[in-house]
Each structure stands twice: as structure tokens, then as C-alpha cells.
Design goal:
single chain, about 400 residues, mainly alpha, 17 helices, about 65% helix
């Protein structure tokens, strides 16, 4: 029995199958709950319909959905194949498509199959959180991983495309440039980035018009600026970040993001001084782990479904550890309990409302891991201190 369980749990195809099943069932459950239950999908769909009609995609449309869109106008192209379908089918296929991107990224990671399966098992709870919300964050996590993996494989054009898709939808994709110094053929990458960047910039205009497309990019900037200001309000369901923890514990919502971003970016950039480590794949993967954590922990827009990105970074860090000391295992358990299960029934509602949500504690374990990642990037010998198989 034990041998069968180990065979099942260490084979990626089984957990991948569970992911696809969850993506389908969560979409069906949302659809059966009525439009108010799949509001996110209605926002996504309305990006396409509003682009066709050349209506501002960032305004409120209370007759269709509550809340507003914050994705770039390029998203109208991505959502188009699903938006033209009946809602029940479009939602299911949308969730499946996002999941397939994430699973393909796991498949491409330079780990053994048992480690890939372990990675997927430990990301499952955060995946469920994002899948239930029909979130693009699932695919975005995959794109960020792929942008780095394609660099390791010397596929510069594919890396550039992965970065650009994420960037034109949610800006986070630009973080894929963290692997730039590891690129062998930088000119090919730059040309691909510029060329496909122009293509992606123009594509939404084929659904509408050049004037509407350009105006939408300006509207997007304004929308994100307003959203950033509203995210910092104490007690909302945003700002689950390092800044959010400090703002909420101190009770001071006026602390600027720059007070965290400037030192955070300096700390993030320090490992790049270790040029002699660039050639080691574990070093490059650890930079990827740092990137995945950083973009969540230093964003006031981070909410619960965003943490699929950060937790993927945690798992890359953990799987490379050659010596899994009690401290390392304890940090992983802390992430699983407080980050992954903080909004589950594992915690009483009183604790969730008055401590975890109130003080953005979902982000705390990932903050600790990120500082540990930076420490390792600055001090370890990546030629011998880490393992991938």
C-alpha cells in the first residue's frame, strides 16, 4: 500500500490530472452559482465586448458585473475565444487553459519527475484559491516560470513572448527580465522583445481602432494608479504584502510604497553582483524564486489568489535545498499553514478576520522565505550547495 501511494504521489501525471479536474469542477460550480458567483469572468468577458464596441474597458458596468477591470487592453485578444462561447463552456475552457500553461511550466522545470509532482502537490491549495476565482494568476505564474526556463534552454524568442503576454495583461510579466543577465544571445532576445511587443501593442486595435487602443493604454495607467491608492486602505482584501503588514500593524495607511520598493529593489539586485555564480543553473533558479516572491510581496495589489505566484517561488527554493534542515522544513510548514491555508476552515473565523486579514499575515511566511532566499543568493556556492535531481 505504501509503495502504491509513493508511486501515485511521485508521478506528475496524477497530480496534473487532479489540477485539470479541479479547474473544470471549480468553473462549473461557479457557473451554477449564477453570474454574481463568476463576476471575475464577466469582467474578463466584458473586456472583449467593450473593446469591440470601443467603450472604456476600465469603467464600472453594474448591469453586467460589479468592480472594474484592471487588465490591459491586450487581454481582449486573449479572452476573445472564450468570450464568444456560452458562459458555461467559456468559463470551463478558460480555467483549463490557464491551468495548462501552469502545468506546462512545471513540466519544463529542470527537476526530476518526483520533484515536479511534489511541487504541484504543495501548490495545490493556492491553485484551488486562484481557480475558484477563475484567475489569470495561474497562467501568469506559468508564464513567469517559462520566461526563465526558456532562457536556460536558449530559446530567447519564446522567453520574450512569455514576458510580453504577462506584461501586456498585468504588468507583472516584466519581472521575467530578471533572467536577462543569463541570456546567451541577448540581441536575439531584444529584437524578439521589440518585435513581438509591437505586435501585441497593435493586436487589440484590430478588434477596435488605433485611437481606441492607444486611449485604452492611457486609461489603463490611470486605472492602475487609482487602484494602487485604494489598495492601501486599511482592512480591505488587497495589500497582502510586506508593505501591507507594516501599514496594518502600524495603523498607518499613508506609508508610501517607495519606502519599501527602493530598499526592496536594492536588496533584490544585490545577488547580481555575484557574476561568478551566473553560470550555475541553481543560481539562476534561485533568482527565479526570488522574483516570484518579490512581485507579490512588494505589490499593494496582492490579494489571496495572487499567492499562487509567491508559493511557486517558495517551492522552487525548497526543492533545491540539498540539506533540508529543521529550519528549512519549518519555514515550508509555516508557508503551508499560514499562507496556503490561512483562509480555510483550518483557522476559526475570529482569527481570520481579526488577525490574518487585519494584519496581512498571509504574506508573513513568504516574506521570511524571501529574506532567506536573498541570504542564500549572497552567501552560498551554487556549484555544490544545491541539487536539482
Amino acid at each position: 500500500m505504501k509503495a502504491k501511494f509513493l508511486k501515485f504521489s511521485s508521478n506528475p501525471k496524477y497530480i496534473f490530472g487532479i489540477y485539470l479536474l479541479v479547474s473544470i469542477l471549480s468553473a462549473i460550480a461557479k457557473y451554477r452559482g449564477g453570474p454574481e458567483k463568476y463576476n471575475n469572468y464577466m469582467i474578463f468577458k466584458n473586456v472583449f465586448t467593450n473593446t469591440l464596441a470601443e467603450r472604456n474597458i476600465y469603467l464600472l458596468y453594474p448591469d453586467v458585473h460589479f468592480d472594474s477591470n484592471h487588465y490591459g487592453v491586450f487581454f481582449s485578444v486573449l479572452i476573445a475565444p472564450f468570450a464568444i462561447m456560452p458562459d458555461w463552456l467559456g468559463m470551463v475552457l478558460w480555467n483549463v487553459a490557464n491551468t495548462l500553461v501552469f502545468l506546462f511550466a512545471i513540466h519544463k522545470l529542470p527537476f526530476s519527475n518526483p520533484k515536479k509532482a511534489f511541487f504541484a502537490w504543495l501548490c495545490l491549495q493556492e491553485f484551488i484559491t486562484a481557480a475558484v476565482s477563475l484567475q489569470f494568476n495561474i497562467a501568469l505564474t506559468g508564464l513567469l516560470i517559462l520566461s526563465a526556463v526558456y532562457v536556460y534552454e536558449r530559446k530567447e524568442t519564446q522567453s520574450a513572448i512569455s514576458i510580453l503576454i504577462g506584461f501586456f495583461v498585468k504588468l507583472y510579466g516584466i519581472a521575467g527580465l530578471s533572467a536577462f543577465f543569463f541570456i546567451k544571445n541577448k540581441w536575439k532576445f531584444i529584437v524578439s522583445l521589440i518585435g513581438f511587443g509591437l505586435v501585441f501593442f497593435i493586436l487589440p486595435m484590430l478588434l477596435s481602432s488605433p485611437h481606441f487602443g492607444i486611449q485604452s493604454y492611457a486609461d489603463w495607467f490611470q486605472s492602475l494608479s487609482e487602484k494602487n491608492a485604494s489598495n492601501q486602505v486599511l482592512g480591505n482584501r488587497q495589500d497582502y504584502s510586506l508593505m501591507g503588514i507594516v501599514r496594518r500593524v502600524s495603523g498607518n495607511a499613508d506609508i508610501s510604497n517607495l519606502a519599501f520598493l527602493l530598499p526592496g529593489m536594492a536588496l533584490f539586485g544585490l545577488p547580481y553582483l555575484r557574476i561568478n555564480q551566473y553560470k550555475h543553473l541553481p543560481f539562476q533558479l534561485m533568482i527565479l524564486a526570488s522574483t516570484l516572491l518579490f512581485i507579490v510581496l512588494f505589490s499593494s495589489g496582492s490579494e489571496s489568489p495572487t499567492f499562487i505566484i509567491a508559493v511557486a517561488g517558495v517551492m522552487i527554493w525548497f526543492l533545491m535545498q540539498k540539506e533540508k534542515s529543521p529550519l528549512i522544513i519549518g519555514m515550508l510548514i509555516f508557508v503551508i499553514i499560514l499562507t496556503c491555508f490561512s483562509f480555510s476552515d483550518l483557522f476559526p473565523k475570529f482569527i481570520k478576520d481579526n488577525y490574518i486579514m487585519k494584519y496581512s499575515l498571509k504574506a508573513l511566511p513568504c516574506c521570511i522565505v524571501w529574506f532567506r532566499v536573498i541570504y542564500e543568493l549572497m552567501t552560498k556556492d551554487f556549484a555544490k550547495d544545491y541539487q536539482l535531481d
